[in-house]
Amino acid sequence: MERVIRSNNLKKAAFLSCLNTSTATLSEAKQAHTHVIKEGLSSQTRIATKLLSIYANHQCFTDAYSLLCRIPEPDILSFASLINACSKFDRFSDALKVFVRMLGRSVFPDARILPTAIKACAGLSALELGRQVHAFGVTSGLMLDSFVESSLVHMYVKCDELNYARKVLARMSEPDVASCSALASGYAKKGDVGNANVLIREMEKQGIQPNLISWNGMISGFNQSGAFSEAIGVFKVMHSGGFKCDGVSLSCALAAVGDLEDLIVGVQIHGCVIKLGFRSDKYVVSSLLDMYGKCGCASDIIPVFEEIDHKDVGACNALIASLSRAGMVAEAVKTFKQCQEQGIELDVVSWTSLIAGCMQNGNDIEAVDLFREMQVAGIEPNYVTIPCLLTACASIAALAHGKAAHCFSLKRGFSDDLYVCSALIDMYANCGRIQAARRCFDWEPSRNLVCWNAMISGYAMHGRVKEAIDIFHLMQSSGHKPDFVSFTSVLSACSQRGLVEEGKRFFSSMSADFGIKPRMEHYACMVSLLGRTGKLEESYSLIKDMPFAPDACVWGALLSSCRVHQNTRLGKVAANALFELEPNNSGNYILLSNIYAAKGKWNEVHKVRDMMKSIGIRKNPGCSWIEVKNKVHTLLAGDSSHPQMKQILEKVNKLSMEMKMAGYLPDTKFVLQDVEELEEREHILCGHSEKLAIVFGILNTNPGTSLTVMKNLRICGDCHTSIKFISSFEEREILVRDTNRFHHFKDGMCSCEDLW
DNA sequence: ATAGGGTTAG
Q: Where, if anywhere, are coiled coils annotated (predicted)?
């Protein structure tokens, strides 16, 4: 019997000495494991603990956990090995599960395991659990350990309970650097400059020298609260105090400089990077590229990028984002492809940057295509990708893609994210689905101002002024102060419906009650509101009284109203101002010539057209889109290359015959070409792109399906009349979004009540 | 077996 025990002890010793926890590979561990079972040593606490910790360090948590459960008498080290490994790989809830199991097995925690348990609470932002562990620390006397104390300070900071963190710090007999700097960086993260500085001074008074972690924590904390100049300030103090910074300090400082667009300081920090030898630190490299990009040197950084030896994804991403931001989408796409070819594994950030770049530069279709490619490439979109895609869907009214993105975010559990939510509201509103937008709005548990504004502007776009104003008031009673965007939306709603008195009241209340100075867009809304209701003189005097020079939107609003009310005198004034501001915008010339044409002043029409010719500008081609069977189809006026064009035109002609028989007369004053022949003019009317898109929709969808069409210009009066007819003749609900608003055609009527 | 700092996308 004694011999058996002795030989077992020998085997045990042999095992313990030959397996090194930190260097053992997974296959070595598995081999050893089988051996241990064969030798009947698996119930030995030390051996099993060693094995489980190797498993855990290879992230084989289930194997490790089942090993732990099979140890008859696990000690604190058995639990600690697994808890620490879980926490190392951010598996905080697993770490806590093991911790709770440990307590259940009546193994008493010590001061070495408590910080990890507290860290897990912090990682999960589990304040209640953290408090319980804190209470345990107090009753057990383990609170006297400085590691336990500083991890508690950190936990409270992470859970946004700075007052608790402060209390813990105040009760410490000997506050240390770690605890002080954790709280200081907590204040920095809140943008609380005052308290952060007070704490630093306190530290100095008590003779506690800040270390590298303290400095870096402050810089990164200020970055997180958007206090970039404070961050740079800390960096400068650190630097001038002779404190040697590292890659962390440099990458944080560069990020701050990028957001401040301070090229001079950026170049200085670049100098530090070279001098201190951090040129190959991947974090430093990407924030360096990002900094130059944000400081307006996007094109200069391509050669810099090419010289980098080890191109990391982060560096690629910074370059792609910088190029996109600078409007160089083609270059961004090129860089993206080159990185792919070089075998760099591009990630969500890379794809999202490119999608965002396309979306921000008007390449919305490309953005939607990229989103699909991304999924084919096996990259999961996240809570940043989705709002980018949704914004692209909104501008091209790609409802099917937008809905798919909505489903995706529901499945992934980030449909409540505020960016996602406001983008959803915007997408549905822009795709003509105002009720769906409202549902997303109602579902959001913690709406922010952006959500409220998206909802108001959605209603405004649909001409639903009552709802827009209701939401505007509801927003205030829910404790949100309207900002300039809210006022733009509510004023534009008033303008859609011609509510002069309400509009005027909002306009004056904006500065009087909310201290918001009217901006250009507010004036544009007022000019359009007054103009639309025929108060052209009042509209013009508002422009003359503006405290700053009116832009093209303001003059454009006046010019449009002059067309509606056929005022040649003011129309000329507005047009002349516009010719100065944007000489190449064909729309302005066309509006003016329309005003003349409507009054039969053909001489003047010719003059305007000659002017266009002499400057060499052409009419901006009308273009409409419609989504049919998950695909966005574009239709151009007079585009003979479209495969279904013959069929479409036949149907258009058939419809106009029906229309004539029903007693509708084509409104030829909307024809832009100065064709004298009436029949010819009618023929041109047939070709307006919105009509083509609607007929395309009728031909390619089942009877009764509602159609949603988008147009890049304002809808013309003749199309408006025709579409009203088509909606009743074909028994279809038709939604048309032009540059101004939505028109909802149903049973021969339009939601704008012919006021637009 | 212990706590504390980093870049790039909306």
A: none
> What tokens appear for A235 in the block?
């960096």
- Which pLDDT score, from 0 to 100, does residue A647 have? 92
Could you give the CA distance from residue A56 to residue A35 in angstroms, rounded to a whole number?
19
Residue at minimum CA to C1' distance from nucleotide B10:
A384
Looking at domain A519-620, which of 1.10.357, 1.20.1530, 1.25.40, 1.10.287 is its CATH number? 1.25.40
| Burial (CB count <10 Å: 0-12, 13-18, 19+), residue A224 | middle
* CA–C1' gap, A122 and B10, in angstroms: 27
| Rounded-to-integer distance, Cα A682 and Cα A659, Å | 13
| Distance in angstroms (rounded) separating the CA atoms of residues A159 and A165 | 10
Which residues in chain A come in under a pLDDT of 50?
671-683
Name the residue closest to B2, CA to C1'.
Answer: A112
Alpha-carbon span A96 to A660, nearest angstrom: 77
Q: In Å, what is the separation between the CA of A2 and the C1' of B10?
A: 71
Which H helix or E strand runs over A745? strand A742-746
**CA dist list (Å): A209 to A145, A349, A745:** 20, 38, 72
**CA to C1' distance (Å), from A120 to B9:** 28
Tokens (6 digits) for A342? 């070089």
Residue reference for tokens 């040129």? A279
The sign of the CA dihedral A296, A298, A299, A302 is: positive
Domain boundaries, chain A: 519-620, 623-750
Token pair listed for A561:
């109203």
Nearest nucleotide to the CA of A318, by C1', is B8
Q: Please provide the size of chain A in residues.
A: 756
Confidence (pTM): 0.86
Residue A6 is predicted with a pLDDT of: 61
Nearest residue to B3 via alpha carbon and C1': A151
A626/B1 CA-to-C1' distance in Å:
63
Residue A659: other Cβ atoms inside 10 A = 18
d(CA A692, CA A327): 32
Q: Which residue, counting CA atoms, is nearest to the C1' of nucleotide B7?
A: A283
